[in-house]
Structure formats: structure tokens, C-alpha cells
Amino acid sequence: MKIITNTASSLNIQEGAQLGINILPVSVSIEGRVLRDYIDISPDEYVKLLRGKEIPSSSQPSIGDIMDLLDDSGEETIMLTVADGLSGEYGSAMAVRNSLQNRDSVYVINSGTLAGPLRYMATAAARLRDQGESAKEIVRQITALAGSSISYVIPSDFRYLRKSGRISHLTSRIGGALHLLPVLTQTEDRKRISFKTVRRTWKSAVETVLAGLRERGVDEGCLISIAYADQRPLAEKVLKQVRESFPRTECEILQLAPSLITHGGPGCIVIQAIHKI
Prior knowledge:
Blueprint: E1 2-6, H1 13-19, E2 21-24, E3 27-30, E4 33-36, H2 43-50, E5 57-59, H3 63-69, E6 77-81, H4 89-98, E7 106-110, H5 115-130, H6 135-145, E8 150-154, H7 158-164, H8 169-177, E9 181-186, E10 193-199, H9 202-215, E11 222-228, H10 232-245, E12 250-255, H11 258-264, E13 269-275
Parallel strand pairs: 1-2, 1-6, 6-7, 11-12
Antiparallel strand pairs: 3-4, 3-5, 8-9, 8-13, 9-10, 11-13
Helix pairs in contact: 5-6, 7-8, 9-10
């Protein structure tokens, strides 16, 4: 049974191979160059490249790469995509799937998320496969998880929010001048990341997120992911603050893929939660 996801899960090709997961690369475009996550450039190399450069863009896995993995071989296949609305990957994958003669053996799941929760869903699917579960049972369990993820983003550079259209040019200039920290969250329909509030310090920004997690019922049955672009010491401070509020909840630290750093910018922190199987 084939399990597929992409590098927006913060899984690289080598990690995927060890877990028996096929990883599709997402690409970034910067100054006329197209670079694939983890293949052409690492997260740390990418952040260095961003310094003083134009704000780049990212693109979903190519239709050709998707077609290479979603084929008519008849092998049972489960593909987990980035949230529909945050990426066009789900629509592309469904178009390929629906063109196949053996389409009934191919399952495409809109994860409703990215980064840490998508990583968890993909690795959970691989674990269930290795335990001998059927494709239909895996799809049932993983699809049930898709509605449980929660995502918050704390960027440190307002320019990336301005490029995405989430804030105005004036708000960006004022926020940057005052060294404010914006807090963003995923909308209930999971199709957008929207502006929530601003805070003056990292501690208060994280407290805002923790309050949101508590309101949404995060407990010891969940996994909390703290993902960073290039500031691991900051991520470790955030992890300590999270563990003080959720001492019984499993937590992890991840580094974002280049394609995700494109949207959050250098210095950003992403805090997410998902229910565990």
C-alpha cells in the first residue's frame, strides 16, 4: 500500500523513505530560480538566501509528479494533501485520481492542515498500514483526524503578511515600526490563515495561542507541534511555555520546510495541535 504526502508536512525525502511514505516536493520561486524543498535547498540555506531579497512565492507539487505516483497499477494508494484552499494540490490530485481506470483503489484526503498535523496524519497512516489495517479503515481514521487540527502562526516580519494580502501596507509599516507581533489562525473552514490580533511580546503572543488551544479542548489526547523557520532557541522557549500549560500533552519541535517559510518568513513560529489516534 502506497502512502503519499508532500514536503509541507516538514517530512523530507529521506525521512519519508525510512517510514515508507512517498514525499512530493513543494517548490519555491525566488529571483527567477525554482528550488525544491529539501532537494535543492534546506530550510537554513533558504533563510540565508531570503535575507535582503524579494519576498518569494511557493508552488504545489507538479501535476507530473502527482501523476507519477497516482497511477493505474491497481496498488492501493492513500494521498494526503495540504488543506484545500491553502493550496490547489487537493484539486490537482483529485483530477488525476478521477482520470484513472483503477480510481477506486486510490484515495485522496484533504488533510485540512499542513506542517505538524499533516506530518502526524501521514506517519499515522503509515503506522496503521504496517499494522495490517485496510486502506478503507486507514482512510476512515485519518479523515476523522482532519477536522481536529488547530493552527496558529506568529510571524516576526510584517512584509510577508502584506504580500499575502492579510494586512494593509499601512498596518504593515506601523506594526513593523512598533515591533509588534501578529497572531494568525486558520479559519473554521480551513481554507485560509487569517489575522487574529497583535501582541507586544513573544510571551503574550504565545499566551494568546495557549488560550485558544484551551478553548478548543486540547488535552493529553493531542499532539502539540511547535515549528520554527530558523530560530530553534526561540522554539525551545515557546515549548517550555507550552509545557507549563499542557504538562500531560505530548509536544514536539519541528523545522518548517522552505515552502512554508515562504509564507511565514524568517523568525516565524507555528503552533499547532491535533488529536492522536
